[in-house]
Specification:
single chain; alpha/beta; Glutamine Phosphoribosylpyrophosphate, subunit 1, domain 1; Rossmann fold; eight-stranded antiparallel beta sheet; seven-stranded antiparallel beta sheet; 20 helices; 36% helix; binds fructose -6-phosphate
Length: 608
């Protein structure tokens, strides 16, 4: 996720771009930059850090330019430094490009361009676009961008300016958002509406595989074959605050609804032509992968629940023994580690002190470290022998939602990659698992459509104070995560427990008024899980079950049910956790709480 803004018109563009970038900073804040068409040509200014750092860099430089593009970056390829900050230029410095998304075949394109004599200055995938356009200098800019779009695979939203067309921005879109703001004698291009809402309420959406030429007097939209497409325009009714949240009342709900896209981004480009997992950025030798005889996964909070699920996947698929540790406990128990141990640290932020201390300890004992994190070049990414990014985009709400589901996917990809490297799974099994993963974004979409139903269901429980979340096998971490969400944003007592363990004590707490939520999706122990839920029902608990669509046997045990689409057992946590996120969200809202900033919590915990 990055933010793009562009403007053509009569006004000085520099302050306008800064204002737009500030409004888009929620999309990423690793670096910011802009390109303005001055009389001398394209002038690019970039700076690592926030938009405020770019402003300091620009201090004292007043531009008269009235056409320009800006970018705020959430790093996906290359460290978040000034060199990798957008805009990127071609060799001659006459083209400037900003990009949001991932160009999957950038490595192949880059190799061809280097062979043709192009000089690359950054580690980004974006820079290939600038050079592809440079190679087409004889074409009008929109034609050159169209050809670049035909060559580039993956998700991209682009905005491009070129020296010889001073009153033109060309935008292009596939997968990543891009909207056009329509003014009077001026026009805008942006990743999101807040960037231009101050100036106009009239907008046009750019569909996938469309190119737009934006000039002060109007816009022209065309498709990849060059056929002109009539723009569909509409009036924006949102105020600025709801526009920043994409029309959602808070970031948490927005992020819950972003999960289908986040999962698609996590999977993007991570498959080879045989349908097997390809983790190019992992840069871990297959021989090293074969040398492991034990795996530890360390993490905190929600990330620990992803670690719990990862244990099932890695053990089942690689037959390597896996230990999971809450990071703050790990190094104080003197774990047995050596050069054949793989340690995987999972951390959304990559900055959690407990997890950092744990992985540093492991490395000091000679273990190999893979970091699974959402933040490029975070402290944990820098510590690691190899990194797997979750690519969920920035998460603003304190409660982890989309970063959890993408951690689940990343860990499954890692488990399948290890299994392939070690020869512990047939290719056909891997291909089937991968196929099921690719169905997940649509399945999550289906679950999200039940949000209103879940809100209505939760209304009957506004006076309840005691909740149990139960699961078995891979559904147990889901239960733990459901309970954590309810505790942290709704401030309700919620216990996550393995369903089979209830009879050894906690069942004494079940009585009328206690809500017992069971995750009983597809599993080899589903029958046992339903028996455990019968035991809760017999003690007068109110039973809500998360079930696979069509499960009438489960339905008979429950007072309320939420159905999710069928998925293989190890993938079902991804769909099963979504209704629990929604349940916690709606219960918190009914209690009038600020879900984005729950009391006593911080997004990143940098104390021990
Ligand atoms: C819960 C939550 C926390 C974090 C934990 C670890 O919603 O957000 O429990 O999961 O603080 O943070 P990271 O993943 O950044 O290491």
């Amino acid at each position: 996720m990055c933010g793009i803004v562009g403007y053509v018109g009569p006004r000085p563009v520099q302050p306008l771009l800064i204002g737009g970038l500030r409004r888009l900073e929620y999309r990423g804040y690793d670096s910011a930059g802009m390109a303005i068409l001055e009389e001398v040509g394209v002038e690019i200014t970039r700076k690592a850090g926030r938009v405020a750092d770019l402003e300091s860099e620009l201090e004292g430089r007043i531009s008269n330019g009235t056409t320009g593009i800006g970018h705020t970056r959430w790093a996906t390829h290359g460290a978040p430094n000034t060199t990798n900050a957008h805009p990127h230029a071609d060799c001659a410095g006459s083209v400037a490009v900003v990009h949001n998304g991932i160009i999957e075949n950038w490595a192949d394109l880059k190799a061809d361009l280097i062979e043709a004599g192009h000089l690359f200055r950054s580690e980004t995938d974006t820079e290939v676009v600038a050079h592809l356009i440079e190679d087409r200098a004889d074409l009008p800019l929109d034609e050159a961008v169209r050809e670049a779009m035909r060559l580039a695979e993956g998700a991209l939203a682009l905005a491009v300016v070129r020296n010889d067309e001073p009153e033109l921005i060309v935008g292009a879109r596939r997968g990543s958002p891009l909207v056009i703001g329509l003014g009077d004698g001026e026009n805008f291009l942006a990743s999101d509406i807040p960037a231009f809402l101050e100036y106009t309420r009239r907008m046009a959406v750019l569909d996938d595989d469309r190119i737009v030429a934006v000039r002060p007097g109007g816009i022209t939209i065309s498709d990849l074959s060059g056929t002109i497409v009539e723009p569909v325009t509409r009036e924006i009714e949102w105020d600025l605050d709801s526009a920043e949240k994409g029309g959602f009342p808070d970031f948490m709900l927005k992020e819950i609804f972003e999960q289908p896209k986040a999962i698609r981004d996590t999977l993007r480009g991570r498959l080879d032509s045989d349908g097997l997992v390809r983790l190019l950025e992992l840069e871990l030798d297959v021989e090293i992968a074969r040398s492991f005889d034990k795996v530890f996964v360390v993490a905190c909070g929600t990330s620990f629940h992803a670690a719990m699920m990862a244990k099932y996947a890695i053990e089942r698929w690689t037959r390597l023994p896996v230990e999971i540790d809450i990071a703050s406990e790990f190094r104080y128990r003197d774990p047995i580690l050596d050069g054949n141990t793989l340690v995987v640290g999972i951390s959304q932020s990559g900055e959690t002190l407990d997890t950092l201390a744990a992985v540093r300890y492991a490395r000091a004992q000679g273990a190999k470290l893979i970091a699974v994190t959402n933040v490029v070049d975070s402290a944990m990414a820098r510590e690691a022998d190899a990194v797997l990014y979750t690519r969920a985009g920035p998460e603003i709400g304190v409660a982890a939602t989309k970063t959890f589901t993408t951690q689940l996917i990343a860990m499954q990809l890692l488990a399948l990659w290890l299994a392939h490297a070690r020869g512990s799974l047939d290719d056909a099994v891997i291909q089937n698992a991968v196929k099921a993963m690719f169905a997940l974004p649509d399945q999550v979409e289906e679950v999200l459509r039940q949000s209103d139903g879940i809100r209505e269901m939760s209304e009957q429980w506004t006076d309840r104070r005691d909740f149990f979340f139960l699961g078995r096998s891979a559904a147990f971490p889901v239960a733990m995560e459901g309970a954590l969400k309810l505790k942290e944003i709704a401030y309700l007592r919620a216990e996550g427990y393995p369903a089979g363990e209830m009879k050894h004590g906690p069942i004494a707490l079940i009585e009328e008024g206690v809500v017992v939520i069971g995750v009983a999706t597809n599993s080899h122990v589903k029958g046992k899980m339903l028996s455990n839920m019968q035991e809760m029902r017999a003690r007068s608990g109110t039973i809500l079950l998360v079930l696979t669509e069509g499960d009438t046997e489960g339905e008979a045990v429950a007072d309320e049910v939420i159905f999710v689409p069928w998925a293989p057992e190890l993938l079902s946590p991804v769909t099963a956790v979504v209704p629990l996120q929604l349940l916690a969200y709606w219960l918190a809202k009914q209690r009038g709480l600020d879900v984005d900033k729950p009391r006593n919590l911080a997004k990143t915990v940098t104390v021990e």
